[in-house]
Design a protein that fits this description.
Length: 167
């Protein structure tokens, strides 16, 4: 029984972000590749959203890394609480999250993004009694017929940076 528990613990550490408890980049890409196959095979619609937390470096520099960690945990919970059970959110980098949203057209994806931005900006995470300003830039792309995980992630990443420039 102990070996089984150790293997489960190793799998958990390999697939999930220790700070937020969300799937990590490696596991997210594995899931994304499966979704892409499903989209191509069955004609499903999946949107990939990339989200970059605003000013995380400034929060770390001003209030310390504990405050930055609190911001990331706050963001992870907010995102997880505001997606459907069929969707997925992961922490894929220092201040970046990715979401997979199934069966939403472009209009509904854009409304979801606006809703998330409003929720994020209205939230007030607190660290050591200090209210932290919360914001994010979000870009998205839909799975296309020739996509790989890399091409889809590259387009979503570029859309996120364009969103950041416009803000």
């Amino acid at each position: 029984m102990k070996l089984k528990d150790e293997l489960a613990d190793m799998e958990l550490r390999a697939n999930y972000d220790v700070l937020t408890g969300l799937p990590n980049r490696r596991y997210f890409i594995e899931c994304l590749e499966k979704r892409i196959v499903r989209c191509k095979r069955y004609g499903d619609i999946t949107a990939l959203l990339f989200l970059d937390v605003d000013d995380l470096k400034a929060i770390n520099d001003t209030y310390g890394h504990g405050a930055g960690d609190a911001m990331l945990v706050h963001m992870a919970k907010l995102l997880q609480d505001n997606i459907r059970a069929s969707d997925m959110v992961a922490r894929i980098g220092g201040d970046e999250f990715a979401l997979l949203l199934d069966n939403l057209d472009a209009d509904r994806v854009e409304r979801k993004i606006l809703s998330l931005i409003e929720l994020i900006e209205a939230s007030q995470p607190v660290s050591n009694g200090q209210i932290l300003n919360c914001g994010a830039a979000i870009g998205y792309s839909f799975v296309g017929p020739a996509d790989t995980a890399d091409t889809l992630m590259s387009r979503a990443d570029e859309a996120m940076y364009q969103s950041k420039k416009r803000a």
